[in-house]
Amino acid sequence: MTVLKTSMRNFFAHKGRMALSAVAVMLSVAFVCGTLVFTDTMNTTFDKLFASTASDVTVSPKGAKSDDTPQNGKPASLPAALLPQVEKAKDVKSAEGAVSAMNVTVVDSANKNMGNSDGAPTIAGNWTSSDARTMDITSGHAPRGPTEVMVDADTADKHDLKLGDELRTISVAGDFTARIVGVAAFKVTNPGAAVFYFDTATAQRELLGATGLFTQIYVTAANGASDAQLKQNVTQALDGTFKIQTAKENADENRQGIDQFMNVIKYAMLGFAGIAFLVGIFLIINTFSMLVAQRTREIGLMRAIGSSRKQVNRSVLVEALLLGVVGSILGVGAGVGIAIGLMKLMSAAGMNLSTDDLTVTTTTPIAGLVLGVVVTVLAAYLPARRAGKVSPMAALRDAGTPADGRAGLVRGLIGLVLTGAGTFALYTAANADKASEGALLLGGGVVLTLIGFVVIGPLLAGGVVRVISAVLLRAFGPVGRLAERNALRNPRRTGATGAALMIGLALVACLSVVGSSMVASATSELDKSVGADFIVQGNQRIVPQAQQAMERSPGLAHVTSYKELEATLTSPDGKKDTKGVTAADPSYAKDLRRPTTAGTLTAAYGKDAMSVGSDYAKAHGVRVGDTITVAFKGGETARLKVAAVTDDSGALDKGSRYLSIETMRKYVPADQIPPNSIMFAKAKDGQEKQAYAALKESLDKYPQYQVRDQTDYKQELKNQVGQLLNMVYGLLALAIIVAVLGVVNTLALSVVERTREIGLMRAIGLSRRQLRRMIRMESVVIALFGALLGLGLGMGWGTTAQKLLALEGLGVLEIPWTTIIGVFIGSAFVGLFAALVPAFRAGRMNVLNAIATE
Fold first, then answer.
1. Which GO terms describe its molecular function (predicted)?
2. What is the tens place of the pLDDT at every residue in 254-269?
3. How far is it, in rounded angstroms, from Cα 79 to Cα 82?
């Protein structure tokens, strides 16, 4: 009980000094809890949607998946003749045929895409009684004929659609127009899909290409019949060649794709939260180390009057426990706020998430509290252990804890060993023969060098700080020398404070090097390999009518088709490969200049011929002249002669196996031939600008596809990498904010620790302005120390990662010096910002009171 009272007294006596550590704990816990609440809410939203839209039993084509489109671009379908058979099955109350297609684009009269840009699907289909259960028609009526369409309310609101507006639907089967005759609102939250409904005959004809077909049959159970029993009865009524699912099975399947997407988001965000926690550990260690040092005399008195080492140790740990509890409780509350903020942000981007579905499970606050408290207590263990080892006489005699030279030597040796082992791992990774092998070594090297730099930080602080000070501080005379001395006074503290900033900046530097190298490598590869003037692609396969519009565009010397086919290859050694093949026009050999290690690509586009990649050829012992058996999905089996082996050292189309469009047509029925995945075009000599403008105009009616010349393509690639890096930098900002709090806390506690010294300096003539400048310079030096270590370490990681990327064809290393220098200079401003409050408080000290401080 005495230990608890002492801890409570010390905690509240230093509540101002604990505040920043509590904020660090709060931010880290908030990010974890916010991530969990956000992902749980998204799961709840999709669960409600899938549960409400699933019928008791659903009959689908065998092998069909909810998020899968067959290679011919049309949804997998069932014969409508199955419907009467299902209706006759036992326990069937009703059965209804449904049509649903996701590989569609809907545009308004101005050719503006009515779909969402956030990746949510555009769904077109027929209006069924199942839809009527989950949606309310808020205006107009359901579609009744071929020129009528009904749209969901969210899409109508987003694009300001109203009754009477004309919409054009583009599918693989063709284009057709219809006027809006109704608007329907979901009874549950629609996460963002744009949904369009037609009458059944129109949906069959325009989306599936023929009447008499359905994509699903929805079956409703009679009163008293279970879904499982209904499924069994429907299965018995059919011949077993169809996929039959209960409502739960259907919802679970729909959830699989969502779960994969959500797990990526969840674990990525939790990873950044873990980085913030790691940075926060240094802040907590520094805080308690300095508080223990400031209370050394007090600890000595406690020991002198009978307190044991365990009691002193326990007292410090109880303070850490209180800090962890307070910070974690605040973090749980802030996490809910972060989740709501993320939901609003996603809604602004097009994914609708309602706060009505806000989900806070019992495990979320428990996880936040346990994580925050455990991390805080563990971080405070070393300072607590150090406090317990202080002897009464040493504490009463000294103003601070004595330095342990032997511990420092052991620490330095451990740090050197870890850093050396990590450096060796990075070197080995950079010289690996396979990227998969090097990736493990890279991960190990990153962890070891990071820990090694953290451990060896105090040793590095002496030399690095002196170098930085010689460059930056000597010009400021005595004040600069005082700032340098203060930064060097406690190397362990400086090392820990700088290490917190080092972690975040190391990741920034590493990702910057990797991102810049990827862009530079891809740009170099495009310059070297791409001969086409224009590239056309989108987030969907290119529908035939868009292909025809492209082919009719004036000013083009040739247009190249590029189709990806599902196929199983059997090599001469008898091994099978299911990665498929690519069918292209012979002009593709000019559009993408793929070097060959044997044979020529021109020959590969001949009759019953193909090419393979060098990796495949090496793995299976394939040579030019060998025969490969290719079993086309939905088509026949062909025996094709290998006419070329392409070099897989580049990144573009690595591993692709080519054959001609004519060879494909020989073995694949017309109704199974896929639309183009991408198309290429070459302008006639001297007509590049005119052809570019004409091609854009020709495809203006198809906004789902983008026309890019090589300059556009390079810029798009740069933008995509830049957007990804900016998102990562934004998440890393949390760790950097926590690191800044660490600098602030270290300076604030350091000022308190040096109160008497500051008073004496002021008494002998140091002005307030000089004092504030001294503290600001000390902060800048610490920040630049952390930045220098972090940027150097990150560039080493990034360079090693690029060496592995080179094995995948991205062989250009580019150091983004502008970014690196900008971050380094920015770190100086971070140091200045962190010193504002401590410097202001130091300047306001009363000189006499400061001198009188014990």
1. transmembrane transporter activity
2. 887 777 778 888 888 8
3. 6
